[in-house]
Amino acid sequence: MKVGIDKLRFASAHQYVDMVELARARHAAPDKYTIGIGQTQMAVIPPSQDIVTLAANAAAPMLTATDLAAIDLLIVGTESGIDNSKASAIYVAHLLGLSSRCRTIEMKEACYAATAGIQLAQAHVRMHPDKKALVIGADIARYGLNTPGEPTQGGGAMAMLISADPQVLALSTESAVLSQDVMDFWRPLYHTTALVDGKYSSNIYIDYFQDVFQEYLIKTQTPAADLAALVFHLPYTKMGLKALRSVLPQVTETQQRDWLRHFEYSRKLNRRVGNLYTGSLYLSLLSLLLTDPNLRPGDQLGLFSYGSGAEGEFYTGTLQPDYQRGLDLGLPQRLQRRQRVDVTTYERAFNGQLAWVADDQQTDWQSDPHRFVLTGQQNEQRQYLDRQA
Ligand code: HMG
Question: Where's the Hydroxymethylglutaryl-coenzyme A synthase C-terminal domain (predicted)?
Fold first, then answer.
């Protein structure tokens, strides 16, 4: 039985900052940000969006009444939690109108959690082929203003519907996993921004990729040449390019050119959003599927998921005949329609997130065009609004 990604859809903020402008404000060479790091725009998440609203905004438009009735598992992967106890998925299930018989949980392991969610969802659907699972990776990447990590911020949510006979990608049951205690990036409970050893984390990422890539090829006896394209977790798009270059000597020059060409499509949309932690690999997959004219049904795609701390997984998926039907076809236009804001406005949004205090607070949600918004906090409870309710 084929099980995999039936539909996928992305949501982020309605505004972005231009990386050349940000580089100038930080007295950095623009080429460092646009070429050295590989980002051209960065999503500016307003205080009226958090992981709950991003997740609901990503998923709601793609779910039909039939989907809603069949979903009995919702997993939100995130490292931008809003509560130490209650799962963000409960709020998301409520906003989406999922059944109260749906199992609803939040998962954490840095940027890797959405992949763990997909693997659990895949196993669940294999046991219950008439059911569907919704997996959402939702995050806001925050390193701080004027930090080396700043140009690798961003945010958004990728929603993926996992089902039998999927429209987009049939997933392999085999995968290769590596999990070890590594201090490359972490965020203690008292921090709102990540702590990171940037260079170390980039080296560990490549080590992990090489390890799980080789392990997968050996374990499944797959020749590297069988993989039409490789798709990466993209904390910044140059990171994936570095990892890809590290395995190019394993294939012919023609295949090297093919992999590099596919890679350029796979980073197109990530270049315009920035890091979105758990959803990043899957935005790259969507970018490849939406923009690359050289893909064919039947192509086998390799997926590399990496979460600091650290856990990595390599697995594959086979492109299905009608894969375009399950894609978020309007995404390039939505990104195009976003409003460009200056660095001062970006900094105000960055500093204006709801404070981690008990006081009642309000956001400027009226200026946020999304269906689901966070209006503030009252009596220590976050307040969500569905404009269509
Ligand atoms: P930095 O020290 O400011 O940058 O931090 P740099 O000096 O290393 O320069 C970056 C690149 O720009 C270099 O290229 C320079 O040569 C180049 P490279 O040698 O790496 O190929 N450069 C230029 N290129 C063209 N023209 C110029 C120019 N100047 C310099 N004029 C760093 C960069 C990525 C370390 C920093 O932004 C950072 O710490 N980011 C956050 C950490 C991160 O993203 N790590 C990635 C791996 S870990 C991961 O993926 C997990 C994660 O998503 C979290 C999770 O799992 O939850 C982060």
Answer: 256-349
